[in-house]
Description:
The complex is a heterodimer. By secondary structure, chain A is mainly alpha-helical. Chain A contains 21 helices and four strands. In chain A, a hairpin with a 4-residue loop joins strand 1 (65-70) and strand 2 (75-79). The longest helix of chain A is centred in the last third of the chain and has 32 residues, at 335-366. The radius of gyration of chain A is 22 Å and the shape is globular. Chain B is mainly alpha-helical. Chain B has a domain at 287-488. Helices cover 77% and strands 2% of the residues of chain B. Chain B contains 20 helices and two strands. Chain B has a two-stranded antiparallel sheet with strand order 1-2. In chain B, helix 16 (375-389) packs antiparallel against helix 18. Chain B is globular. Chain A binds chain B through residues 70-72, 137-138, 141-142, 144-145, 148-149, 152-153, 159-160, 163-164, 167-168, 171-172, 175-176, 178-179, 182-183, 185-186, 210-213, and chain B through 386, 390-393, 397, 401, 404-405, 408-409, 411, 413-414, 416-417, 420-421, 423-424, 427-428, 431-432, 435, 438-439, 473-474, 477-478, 481.
Amino acid sequence: MNGLLNWILWSPVFGMAAVLLIPKGNDNIIRWTSLVSTAITFILTLVLYANFDESIGGMQPDFLVKVPWIEQFHIFYSLGIDGISLPMTLLNGLLFFLCIMSSWTVEKNLKGYFALLLMLQSTVFGVFFSLDFFLFYVYWEVMLLPMFFLIGIWGGENREYAAVKFFLYTFFGSIVMLVGIIALYYATGKGVDSFNILAMHGGKFSDLTVHIFGNEFNFERLFFWAMFLGFAIKVPVFPFHTWLPHAHVQAPTAVSVILAGVLLKMGTYGFLRIAFPIFPAASVEYSTIIGALGLISVIYGAFCAMAQDDVKKLVAYSSVSHMGFVMMGLAAMTVQGMNGAVLQMFNHGTSTAMMFLLIGILYERSHHRWIVKPDGSKGFGGLYTQLPRYTIVFIIGMFASLGLPGLSGFISEALIFLGIYQKFTTMTVLAIIGLLIGAAYLLWMFKRMFFGDVNPEVKDYEDMNTREILYMLPLCIAVIVFGIFPSPILNIMKASVGQLVDLLSKY
Amino acid sequence: MLEILKTSLLLYLPEVVCVVLMCLLLIAESMHKEEGTDRKSVFVLATAGLVLAAAFLVHNLGIPGAPAFYQAVVIDSFGTFMKLIMVGGTIGTIWLARSSNDIYPNLKSEFAIMAVGTLIGGMLLASANNMLTLYLGIETLSILSYVMSSLKREDSTSTEAGMKYALYGGLTAGVMLFGMSHIYGMLGSIQFVELVPKVAALQGADQVYLMASFLLFFAGLGYKISAFPFHMWSPDVYQGSPIPVTAFFAIVPKMAGLAVLIRVSHLFFGGDSGLAIAWVGLLHVVAALTMTVGNVSAIGQDSVKRLLAFSSIGHVGMMIMGIVVLNEVGARAILFYGVAYMFMTLVAFWITSVLNDAYGTDSQAVFRGLIHRHPVMAIAMCVVLFSLAGMPPFSGFVAKFNILSVAIEKGYMSLAFIAAINSVIALYYYMKLVKEMVFGKAESQEKVAGFTEGTTALIVVLTIPVFLLGIFWEGLMNLSGSAKLFLQ
Lengths: 507, 488
């Protein structure tokens, strides 16, 4: 089992190499190669899940990989997995597999598209596996390159602007983080563990100071904010969310799915793995601010979503809102809140992926996404009678997204509310209003698109075909099963989250 | 005396090779009577000579340090490493000149000769052990540079460039000489080894007077590396000069200037006297302003040559950060940066040069849709641009990482944050070019004739280190870490 993480990390790269070696024009071979590659990767993540020991809170000792990379600087190629990264790994394995299926209809420069998608998958695994800060940063940054090209080449009309904005925004956050990483390297004394993320856990930096322009700052507080910036931009937390609607709307369907499903979680994962455990005192001190920003994201994101006429933009803003719940759960720093947050990371990954995939399916038929067209006429209407299968899947996805009991979103949101109520009572009440608005915009959107008079344009749309049903099915199952029976996911994260909560409770 | 001469000459073999090479090149060049011939032999000879010089330099890397010619120059591993970067840059730009149409055909071989001559100046500068050698080095470096920048004789921007360069250079060299004479007047020596203890022993007001003269002295160096506020000449000169010359200017004189700036800073200001604090403060400001001015000015540039020129000012600012810290890890970071920067600069200018030849302009528009016509070249350019911006997994990132980390180690947080913001700005303008290449639609699908198989292969070969040094950088790091300054 030792090399399993290596296999998961590098199998997409092999897939990418295979895709690049196939001569141009063999479109179907390229598609099938990518599909097989992601299928193998997904199976490997399931193997990982099967061999996972739920009782261990720290890194699973069976899967650790540690090879010296730059010995002089004590940089290691060091991988590991615990209960926080495993759900994300499963999500990453699953979503890419489904995305390749949903990308079957991509025609433009197919080879580059699939190669970049596979490269992206590998880098995302890298972020979730890295236990070495340098390695983590390399993956964190390299991930931007395939995203930049995927949005910029295969995106919508305004793709260049969206790609540049996405890239610059994230780069800005991460370069500030880099300064923090280097500062940590020297704060730990350049020793053998100076890039070891795990070794820095536990609040070792609260007594140090730094000078900037002659002012003295507390090391822990200053670099907590440096890390915060890097991760908050990725989540994105209000007010750093402005890149997200552009990127989502312009990105091709599969890339939107990946962006919302996995990449946003990298931000919250960063808090869980890096910012909180390394700077616990500052995290506890500023938890109110984090929670408040989460709350603003919830409500502001929901209101923004309500105002959208473009259904994809609506779902994009709903992501801001739902990731706000995650941030609130993190800020609570209680067992329920944290567990809820990690579960919400997973559940949002499945439900929002459904929404984006469904919008993609619709877009392939309609070539627009307007709920209300700019000229005021209805974009859709009466889809319910025309596309019954599509509507059923849409209902499942939508209700999972708004947190209907019995579907996955409910459990995680309920846990988050249980968690924050102990800490921030007012915020909880306000966040529940956010939930209400969430229900409102989704239902309103549903009413305008699916009910009412049948729009003549809609009449010749075909219902979902077998391929589309095939890739929606796993998500439907996940959303329903984890809504009734969330313990498979909750159990694997429990020990790791508990460890983190224990650490934070000391401050 | 003969003994000293003999040992000195042996130590000085790389430079001797270059001097002999220059003479041979002059003869070889004049043997080609008829206009417009290829004169390949000149280039082959120049390359062979430079490779030989490089081989001697590699041999010299093992020498920890030894003075030569009665302490006029010092051969140490640090200077030798810098010289290796310069030789590499010279070889690259000579061949770039051969393939470029930006230089008149009958002047290409002359460029090779002048490049070697300038290189000799740079090498002298990198191993200067007293004020006079330093000045000689600067002048040797400069005089041929003036000629090179006006190689396009019939082009008014090129002659303007040469004129500007010469005027500015003459002025700063004069100011520098004035500063040096003041230093001599105060301390009574030009030998570094005698000056160092005297500088350290200065007290009170004398320190202020000496600082003033070092400020004048800095003008000459600042001009060579185009540090703020002595950078004004460089955009116009870079734009007016033919592309190979610009590429040459972006590498060789900068490296030479940085080498001597490191040497002077480390020797005279290594302590913690008031003088040293003032010098560090000066370099702080210079580093921050140089990179900011360079990067901000690059944003609006349409001419890629000019963009690269401004960005090279930004990179110099970054490299000065490695001097501010005044320690060996700083010097090591600069050496690594220099190697990475040399490869990146060569590739970027080479691709620009080929496109400039094909379309007669170096505006960003000629890059539009390059990925559809020459995917390999577009990818190479993307790699280099992302590397220049400091994206992993490319060598530019490692270079930036090292520079940032030496600054942070010293506790220069403000400088580190300024550098961080600067790299975001840099990413923005590099990305604009990437956008043109990858997202843009080319007006025609015609191939660019300049990207022959040979050129493509060469550019790919030059791009490989940009990538490899971003992943396997320990070897080069150890090598540059072993390069030390020496004083005797």
